[in-house]
Amino acid sequence: MPENGFLLCVSEVAGEVTISAAGLSAIDARRPLAGRTVAVVHAAWHSCGSYQLNVSQILAYRALGARTISVAVMDVPSPPPPQGGRWPAYLAATSELPADARYFCGPRRMGLSAWLRVIHGDEAGYLIEMMKRVELPDGIAREQIDLIHANHFFTLPLAARLRAGRDIPTLLETQDIQARQFVLRNETRFCVPPVARYESMLAVELEWMRKADRCIHLNAEENDDFSRLLPDASHRLIYPAIAPVACGPGGARVIFVASDNFPNRDSLRWLLAEVTPLAPQVRIEVYGNIDSGLKKRDPALYEAHRDVLRGRVEDLNAVYAQSAAVLLPTVEGHGLSIKTVEAMSSGAPLIATRRAFRGMGFDPSRLRNVTLADDAQSFAAALRDIGNSPEATARVDSDTRRLYDEKFSFGAYARALEEAAAPLLRP
């Protein structure tokens, strides 16, 4: 096993990858990036919206004809993969990642400078310090990379190492203003004064973003914010491609699907503590690894509701297909909500706050299978009303599914990605 990481090659499965989106077959036939190699650099995360985006990126580049490389980097000190730390769990949960080759790396130790940033809540500075300590995986220097698609500003130090001595353009997919997320996290954890401020962490973020050749933003609000903050940079608004879930016949399940992060935990607390007590006759089911975060950070709430927390399941399609309604009780968060797009693709009736549709550029009140409820009383009333009105159309023809196909399909994403990437490629 190489000391700095390892390479896992997968067989050529382009003919087996199914991307159910109109227009993608035409892109695949043209193969405009044939003969090119694209390195997708991303955090070694799984079971979350960012991981779904990484899968979409790789599938889109493959549909455009490129050979794809996944470079997964751990954001905490970790032993070499695949043994120890978070690596076994990551590898087990991402076995289907469709890259042609996969590389894994991460920092071995924290160091004093990173530790000082941690205790003061400077997550932006901490992540940059950690990425600077990452050793490149063995073998990756031999790859003839034509384009780097980096995810989150903090992977750019690793992208810079990949570019060293080579003229390789870099696309950066920002996935929200990260400084906002860091400030939210500091509200719930102990930090030694002086606590890092939003402005200082944003400055670090912007400094590294300037090193990218083009920045891709996932929603209209994010695109407007970064265009204002970095007026001299190249910006593109590209809605992400989110893998659709099954449009099933429906059933009795009332579901909330969420990964473990601060905004989702805050939303779940609101749902369990303020909404469901007003609709005790409705039994909800909560899916995703958010149960582990709730157990760790709010054990009392976890114990009070552990019977509805189902955890991560292998067949999420079946859960959506058998749902009577999908809940989107979003009360916190920035950037486009991946779980909202996923729920839209199901075609099921949705009960949601307006915040769930942030950054999407349309009025959700016009969607006939969406009930908007921004306070606990109205959300509970919508819960109590589930099943009283028959669905007007098949879920595959619902308003949300049609909007999903138009804005968030793989075909739309691949075409936009080609338009952003092609002008950067060297002849």
Key descriptive features of the protein:
427 residues; Rossmann fold; Glycosyl transferase family 1; 8-stranded mixed beta sheet; 14 strands; 15% strand
Question: Please, could you describe this protein's structure?
Answer:
There is one protein chain. With 427 residues, this protein is an alpha/beta fold. 37% of the residues lie in helices and 15% in strands. The protein has 17 helices and 14 strands. Strands 1-4-3-2-5-6-7-8 form an eight-stranded mixed sheet, sandwiched between helices. Strands 11-10-9-12-13-14 form a six-stranded parallel sheet, sandwiched between helices. Helix 9 (220-229) links the parallel strand 7 and strand 8. Helix 2 packs across helix 17, helix 11 packs across helix 12 (299-305) and helix 14 packs across helix 16. It is globular. Keywords: Transferase. This is Glycosyl transferase family 1. GO terms for molecular function: glycosyltransferase activity.
How many distinct folded domains?
Answer: 2
Strand content: 5-15%
Which CATH class of the largest domain applies here? Alpha Beta
**Main β-sheet, spatial strand arrangement:** 1-4-3-2-5-6-7-8
Q: Give the N-to-C terminal Cα separation.
A: 37 Å
- The coarse silhouette is globular
Pfam families: Glyco_trans_1_4
Protein name: Glycosyl transferase family 1
Keywords: Transferase
GO molecular function: glycosyltransferase activity
